[in-house]
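TASK: fixed-backbone design
INPUT:
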């Protein structure tokens, strides 16, 4: 993947990819907002494609991201809370699996930042909140000590 950003005028830039180009107008939308939009859109595409492959249709999808940033420069993201709101004919358990699969496995942008950002999520499915402010177990910018876990010898 390659992206080239070229200065146009003032604080306006053009980003060119192998497929297309778009204008980044910094006074209107900051690069950090573009970054957050990319994180969210990555997961949103999963939320359309995964159910479709299983014979379901997700309708009325909205994914909202709320970020808290560090006070000091470089003002990295400390926390990211995602709220997934959508309708489908699937059971709540399957709808939750779609969100979890996106967060834990498929969304490469979220998985790129999850070791340094505490990510939590809320799921609203068919108008009902089924998960509220759950924090991802893996990553999350912190170490979780599960203690000694006994298992089969290798």
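OUTPUT:
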């Amino acid at each position: 993947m390659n992206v080239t950003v070229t200065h146009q005028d003032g604080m306006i830039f053009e980003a060119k990819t192998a497929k297309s180009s778009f204008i980044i107008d910094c006074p209107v939308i900051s690069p950090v907002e573009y970054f957050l939009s990319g994180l969210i859109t990555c997961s949103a595409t999963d939320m359309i494609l995964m159910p479709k492959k299983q014979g379901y249709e997700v309708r009325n999808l909205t994914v909202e991201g709320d970020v808290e940033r560090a006070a000091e420069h470089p003002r990295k993201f400390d926390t990211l809370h995602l709220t997934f709101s959508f309708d489908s004919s699937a059971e709540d358990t399957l709808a939750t699996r779609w969100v979890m699969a996106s967060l834990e496995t498929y969304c490469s942008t979220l998985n790129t930042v999850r070791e340094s950002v505490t990510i939590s999520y809320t799921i609203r499915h068919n108008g009902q909140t089924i998960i509220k402010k759950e924090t991802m177990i893996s990553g999350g910018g912190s170490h979780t000590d599960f203690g000694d876990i006994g298992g089969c010898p290798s």
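COMMENT: DSSP finds three helices and seven strands in the chain.
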